[in-house]
Amino acid sequence: MLRTEGGGVALERDRFEALGAPDPRISRRHALCRWEHGIWVIRDLDSRNGTWVNGRPIDAETRAGASAVVRVGDTLVVLLSDVSPHESRPLRTEAGVVAGAALQGILEQVRRASAGSNLHLTGPSGAGKELAARAFHAASARPDGPFVAINCAAIPEGVAERLLFGARKGAFSGAHADVLGHIQEADGGTLFLDEVGELDLEVQAKLLRVLETREVIALGSSRPKIVDFRLCSATHSDLRTRVANRRFREDLYFRIAHPTLTVPPLHTRVEEIPFLVERACRAAQRTPHVSLVEACLLRPWPGNARELLAEVTASAHVHADAGRAPVRAAALSPTAGSSFAPVPPEAPTANARPAARDPNSSPFPPKERIEAALHRHAGRVAAAARDLSVHRNQLRRWLTKQGIDPKHFAGE
């Protein structure tokens, strides 16, 4: 961890050696980074191997927003506006999972919430909601009880009631024996319902009754069974919106959605990314090249840790098949970690009459990708346009049309 001194931090060989991270490719005086008026100013000090900012070499000096990635030699430095959260919560491994400051903060809140009987988690897919649910269970008064995890979105249509509440022999065609439901299996422990918003409204009503009465009635039975379990639910979408659209019961929402905690996406936990990359490569008996780690730091990873691990593992295996090491950025799929772009229109046939083209329109990547490019380049439109492979005038027209002021990204 390097702190600024007088508003700046020098990236030089002796300093990294003192931190236990020697790099012979770093010059004695390599680069200087200064925090000025809400942006980083990075200057190369005539270094032998050059300085790279956000994946591009700089000639002398450039500007970048917070979370800029600087490469000096074979060492990567992420520039942050505030390092105090990372000093109070240094990176560590929890239950085999790498956890940085933001994730540790959420897990601490999860453990405090374990004093209650339920918890609702939100956050994007692959961000670590099941990890948080397991932490909720482990911090409970009965951590040795069962932890039953169910993905409600993966339950086939029409069988959720049977799977959750169980069934007696003869309750339906093919029921040759009594079947315990997941709720009975979670008795004495924790039931984790991932994507709970995908449950049918009829099943939601029965789940609410179980939560209110602590009794479950299996299909084909008239006798309730008392159950004692804690409920942890999760969604990647907004449950309030589903309530407004009458796709989720309001009474069930108020029963399960307090407290609610949000697991942050991976792109806000950049300190975890190098360790996840190294772990995936090591599992394939390869080592990551600095360019691979750099590329992973610069991508938004909409699929979060799940996507990152899968893509890096695939890249490492490609290298393993070819007998090359270490794994470089070139092995990473061009679409890995990128936001999803709309499908391009089909090419016209030879006899088709070309449509008139609007000179003020052009195909653009998703809004999130454009904003990410503006963020990486501190609001500089020309640099963001080069990053996105579009003309700067086209990008300016698009920003004006969408009401986006690039100056807002200069101080990030």
Main features:
4 domains; 412 residues; Rossmann fold; elongated; single chain; Tumour Suppressor Smad4; alpha/beta; 33% helix
Structure description:
By secondary structure, the chain is of the alpha/beta class. It has 4 domains: 8-82, Tumour Suppressor Smad4 (Sandwich); 92-262, P-loop containing nucleotide triphosphate hydrolases (Rossmann fold); 266-331, Helicase, Ruva Protein, domain 3 (Orthogonal Bundle); 367-409. It is 33% helix and 17% strand. It has helices at 13-18, 84-88, 101-113, 129-138, 160-165, 182-185, 201-213, 239-244, 250-256, 273-283, 290-297, 304-322, 367-376, 381-388, 392-402, and strands spanning 8-11, 31-36, 39-44, 51-53, 56-57, 61-64, 68-72, 75-79, 92-94, 97-99, 118-122, 147-151, 190-194, 215-216, 225-226, 230-235, 260-262. It has a 5-stranded parallel beta sheet with strand order 12-13-16-11-17. Strands 1-2-3-6 form a 4-stranded antiparallel beta sheet. A 4-stranded antiparallel beta sheet has the order 5-4-7-8, covered by helices on one side. Strand 4 (51-53) and strand 5 (56-57) form a beta hairpin. Helix 3 packs across helix 4 and helix 10 crosses helix 12. The radius of gyration is 26 Å and the shape is elongated.
